Amino acid sequence: MTRRDVIRGAAALAAAKALAQPAAPFTLPALPYAPSALEPYIDTQTMEIHHDKHHKAYVDNLNKAVAAHPELANRKLDQLLRDLPNVPESIRVTVRNNGGGHWNHSLFWQTLGKPKDGPSGKLATAVEKSFGSREAFEGKLQAAGLTAFGSGWVWVMPQGGGLAIETSPNQDTPIMSGREPLFGIDVWEHAYYLKYQNRRIEYLSAVMHVLNWDFLAQRYLGMAG
Ligand code: MN
To answer: How far is the CA of 47 from the centre of ligand 1 (A)?
Structure first.
C-alpha cells in the first residue's frame, strides 16, 4: 500500500463516516454544490425541490416521529435503520420511510457532482471484474433503473472484490439489512419528472454524466479495504 493509498483510504473513511448521521434531532445536510451544478443533466429546479422540499420532509417527519420517543433520543440514523424491529411499532413505518429517505438522499447528493473522468483505482478494477467495462456497468445500471417498478432505488453493492446491482422499493435501503451500499440512484419520479416527464431512461442516461467518480472511488477504497 502506497502513502497515496493510505491518504485516500483515510479520506474515504472520513467520507463514509460523514454518512453516519448524528443522533436526533436530525438535520438536512446542505447540498455539496450549487443546485445548478448538474445542468444540463439535472435541472436546477428539480435539485432545489428534491433537496429543499422532499429531503427536508423526510428529515422533518423522522424528527417528529422520534421526538415522541425519548428513549430513541441518542440513537443514530443508521442504528435506527439497522434495527427497525426494535423501533416502537407506532412509528416503525414512519422511521422506515423517512429515515430511509434521509439516509438515501444524504448519500445520493454526494454521489453526484460535476462531470468527472470515470472510475479509478480499486473501483475501476471492481467495475472491470464484475461488468467488463464502464460502459457495460452503466448499461446494467440503467437497465436496472428502467425495470424497477414504481418508486425506489437502484443500488451498487460492494461484493467479493467486485460490485453487484440490486433495487429496492420506496425508501428501503440496504442499511436495513446491515449492508452498506457504495451508492444508489433515486428512481422516484420526483427525481426527474420536471425535466424528463415519463422518460426515465433519459434521466438515467443523464445521471451517468454526473456521477462523482472521485467520491465513489474513495468511498469504495474505504469499504473494500
Ligand atoms: Mn428522491
So the answer is: 10
225: pLDDT strictly greater than 70? no
- What is the CATH classification number for the domain harbouring 179? 3.55.40.20
How remote is the CA of residue 20 from the centroid of ligand 1, in Å?
Answer: 19
Give the distance (Å) from ligand 1 centre to CA of residue 105: 6
The pTM assigned to this predicted structure is: 0.89
157 in any annotated domain: yes
Q: Tell me whether residue 214 is in a domain.
A: yes
Range of the domain at 159: 41-225
pLDDT band (50, 70, 90) for residue 69? very high
Cα 74 to ligand 1 centre (Å): 26
- Beta 152-159 vs 183-186: how paired, if at all? antiparallel
Each residue of 89-102: pLDDT tens digit?
A: 999 999 999 999 99
Cα(161) to centroid(ligand 1), Å: 29
Q: What is the dihedral of CA 85, 104, 168, 64, to 10 degrees?
A: 40
